[in-house]
Amino acid sequence: MPAVQSLEETHGYWTWSYFSLNLRLPIIAFDLSFFRLEPLLQELAFRTACLKLQINTEDPETPLCAALAELRRQGLSARDEAVIAGAHLRLGRLRRYFGGVGSEYWRRTMIRCPRPP
Question: Closest Cα partner for 32 from 44, 20, 45?
């Protein structure tokens, strides 16, 4: 099912996805900061938002883990993953849903899906 894309305040993270009960459609919201990201991070954030809708989970780590797994299967290098980690570690305050800060969101995600050796 296609999702409506909108520009909204996402409280610190680059994308946010949800089902609109009023529209009866999935929504993917983009924070303005999304458009300043390098393409790799845009791809990760967009995949994460899409996967959150597909997986239909309430925790943020599962869709990020699934997006990382997809990118890893497609050949994500350790260097590129370090770029992704660094971007998350530099994020400031986030919604409590994400653990309150980017570093906590990344830490919780890496517990679930550490980089394979």
Answer: 45
- Whole-angstrom Cα Rg for the chain: 14
Q: Domain count of the chain?
A: 1
Residue range of the domain that includes 50: 4-112
2 φ/ψ sector (left φ>0, alpha ψ -120 to 50, else beta): beta
For residue 117, being part of any structural domain is answered with no
**Smallest Cα–Cα separation from 11: which of 31, 40, 26, 27?**
31
Q: Read off the pLDDT of residues 22-38 as tens digits, 9 standing for 90 and up.
A: 888 888 888 888 889 99
How much is the pTM? 0.86
